[in-house]
Amino acid sequence: MSTPWSHRYAQRTQSLTSSTIRELLKLTQQPDIISFAGGMPAPELFPTEQFEDACHRVLGGQGQAALQYSTTEGYPPLREMVARHLARYDILAEPENVLITAGSQQALDLIAKLLINPGDRLLVEAPTYLGALQAFNVFGADYVSVPTADDGLIVDRLDEALRSGPKFMYILPNFQNPSGVTLSLERRKALVELADKYGIPLVEDDPYGQLRYEGDHLPPLIVLDRQTHGIRLDNGYKLGNVIYMSTFSKTLAPGLRLGWIVAPPEVIAKLVQLKQGADLHTSTFTQMVAYEAARGGFLDEHIKKLRQVYHERRDVMLEALSEFFPPEVSWTRPAGGLFLWARLPERMDSTRLLEAALRQKVAFVPGNAFFAGSADFAESNRYLRLNFSNAKPDMIVEGIRRLGLVVKLQMGRSGSVPSQLRADAICA
Amino acid sequence: MSTPWSHRYAQRTQSLTSSTIRELLKLTQQPDIISFAGGMPAPELFPTEQFEDACHRVLGGQGQAALQYSTTEGYPPLREMVARHLARYDILAEPENVLITAGSQQALDLIAKLLINPGDRLLVEAPTYLGALQAFNVFGADYVSVPTADDGLIVDRLDEALRSGPKFMYILPNFQNPSGVTLSLERRKALVELADKYGIPLVEDDPYGQLRYEGDHLPPLIVLDRQTHGIRLDNGYKLGNVIYMSTFSKTLAPGLRLGWIVAPPEVIAKLVQLKQGADLHTSTFTQMVAYEAARGGFLDEHIKKLRQVYHERRDVMLEALSEFFPPEVSWTRPAGGLFLWARLPERMDSTRLLEAALRQKVAFVPGNAFFAGSADFAESNRYLRLNFSNAKPDMIVEGIRRLGLVVKLQMGRSGSVPSQLRADAICA
Fold it and tell me: Which domains does chain B show, CATH number per domain?
């Protein structure tokens, strides 16, 4: 039915399609679903008591400030905390280089607003983060995709892609969403050098960097960029070729909606103006509560616990996949983060698999959603993204068992095993 | 200095200008400033204890849900509460018609994203809300302005403006920001009928509707629209010609960043998709805390107190203006809200006045910022917006006294009174 509004929508709304993740997040609210779908942290690990103490301190001592309007840039002590935290990873940002955002998603939206004219080509990984594509699509982005392998994006394909003159490249170097793969040090260096050579700036998205379960920390692109430019720059990040972004969603709590952008001061100034028009500022209250909850070393200790628990869950999922999935399915082995990425045999379709899986009360995200623009649908939809942070170990085993049966059933349908037999097996 | 980013900004960034309000809000953080500048509620009235109890209940009983991701539409009990609350004002919205936003400012941003193509003309009042212009400018809006008088916009000028085919009209009918004037019932009816006649939808912004200090409540445009369409519509708001928006910022606390949009379901669905790309959802935690703090009749009682205090402060400011301002200055007498609007004698300039006022530790917002596009700068900058909710009565008197002296001084400079004498008067 048409309304007085429907013929008045802006052209950019044509990019809006109903999102698979969105519909799935709704399903995962049903309590009996085992969800590998969202990127949700384990809720039983949320430090609710620490938050209660923090609320008490904030409202008791600074309640008037916490409930009032505040500056667009963010709560100064939180910006300082972020800068101090980043310095431990050699990201030498001043508080003035840090803009507090309403989660990473707003960081993506503001960066898109700042940089993308309709028709601009962006360089992205294939696959890449669905939420980034959503943010970029609204502003009319086109895409050039660079495929990834186990060590992250394939550098041989990168030269040509960067030479084609994209507006910027968006990349998740650590435990990438959705694939879980990590860009190797060698490839990071090659990327930063090529990006510099062709004058293509980089947007580095690092939500999971602190959630590493094995291997050594690798320097972020923003650090390698500084080292590359180190000799001829005397002004730190003023001329930096990398915008870096991260979030408290995976380490403290996503329900607060707190993330940040690190960028040269001139870029921050523009982003601040855009953020002012977008929401004036991020909630003063949540910023102060997050600061109070995180400070004094609490967040570091908390992240240690998260690493331990998610490490175990990753191992449980990998083991369950080996036990319950047919050998024709392959998957990545992430060194950190929240996701792994499985690949079905040829001619199988993960959307059809999801429909069957939901009947068995198991959810995941079909791969197609993570490919930009012109990806081969049949090929891209052989993939599924599996989250291993949200469900407890016994539920991971049970969910993967059910999912394995559904996979085998659908392989059987297009193969030799009678489907009736498989259906019985699932109901057992 | 140019960075790798500065030649890559999108065209829309050309609309970004450094905002007077923004710079002023920074100044008002100095503790010794008497600020009539921001639209800030009285912080000493924030119900901090009620919030502390609410945090305790939310984190104690539902901490895992409060800190987790949630749906884009908003926390269901809060949407229901908003719908119930609106029903008391005859706005018959279902919870499905309500989208929770990060304050009114995000509502404006999402509506702009949904509707504005570059070059689209919007109909706005002259003057109108600065933050709306900021949100609309980024998406390339052009403007047709309709002047306002004491009863709100001048309907004689409206017919021609609506006939010119704007994309929509943005209007604040109650205690408008910045002018404080209220659209009369007669003019509301005329506006709704003309908008219907010419097929121009309305965006009704009502942040202050509950803060009325005298006179009777007037029906919102969205209610008059339903009554106008009542006979030929059988499906409530499905075909409504009005999008309505409001906020908890002026009644509960702005630091939470919580507002809402009421719109037909089809429009809400599109806005939800845009909000998903913008920030996934508004903080689960602040939504739950606001709900817990507001429910059970607390918010109603709290608003009664706000009305009483702000009513007094309005009267104190009106009286101080009469006492300390020269008769050549005129001002509005708002029946509610947070602002009044003063007009300087011809050839005086409120930006120059502000510079002098800041030296006397008094702040306000010069009028020019509130006029869209091609307003006559000299004429528009004869105005100043004065907020009367933030400062306490004795500070209001002192601030208006100082401001009156600065006004007289500047009148003297372009008139007959020796400036030296006036300067002494201020330092006294």
Answer: 8-46+300-427 (3.90.1150.10), 48-297 (3.40.640.10)
